[in-house]
Amino acid sequence: MPDHVITVEDVETWTGPPLVLFVGISTAGSLAHVVFDGWADALGRPWVLRGVDLPPDTPPPVYRRLLAAMRRNPLVHGAVVTAHKLRWYRACAAELSERDRLVDLTGEINTLATGARVAAYANDARSLAAILGSPSGDRIVCLGTGGAATALLLALHLDVETGEPRADAPERLVFADIDPAALDALRRVAERIGARPELVHLSGPADHLVPGATLVVNATGLGKDRPGSPLTGHAPWTPGTVAWDLNYRGDLTFLHQAAAHGLSTRDGWEYFVAGWAGALTAIAGEPFTPRALSALAAAAAPHRPRRTGT
């Protein structure tokens, strides 16, 4: 096992430098391990990063054990959660000292800051809002309805700081998934914020949702955690559509498919950097400002992977 991936037991007995955890499914391949020292320097923190890999079907007691280990070990300063966000909330919400309002609104956790008290944050919507600016287009399609898609719904529909509806929200939002439970969870969030997206239950590829879209987002994890794409190679793309994959690593099949049709593509690098910037500033107890995002983006920029064929 790589040195930068540890177990829950290792967290309980950690005696090294101040530690930030990276909780995901397969964290070893992330460039966060390469970039992290630059981020820690930019924030003036003597942190080291270690991944904790948990399978998708991790039972709730494991999350609670990891949270207890973080609470009891003063050398653990927090955790950045890139997978399991919804499961963390379901397993541990009742045990948290503090939660920002987006945690209960979304039913997810993507950051934990530990110390005398344990604070939980759902910063993904803020991170997406920081890089989206004013959303353009009258029909946006998001494939996948997990944590990232939930954050996208909030970022497109709300001013995430005030909680007020955006005046420039897109006219039509379409979210699709093969998992009825995930669709139901997103529906509940939409009801809480007064949004009315079109929710589509998929039984196969989502090719029929592509025509007429101004932006199509891959938030499924396909192309990173698992190979493939939510579309076939024969999807009837509309000229001018932008394809955005929230992944920046993996086979990125979705983006290759779009590029083969001559479309503009965007990978998940900016989302990756903004997500980490939002999480690390929360752990450091500092505001997530444009200046902080710019500093952490500059630290990450030399490590951005080159994309080929898109």
From TrEMBL:
Record Gene3D superfamilies: NAD(P)-binding Rossmann-like Domain
InterPro entries: NAD(P)-bd_dom_sf
Protein name (Swiss-Prot/TrEMBL): Shikimate dehydrogenase
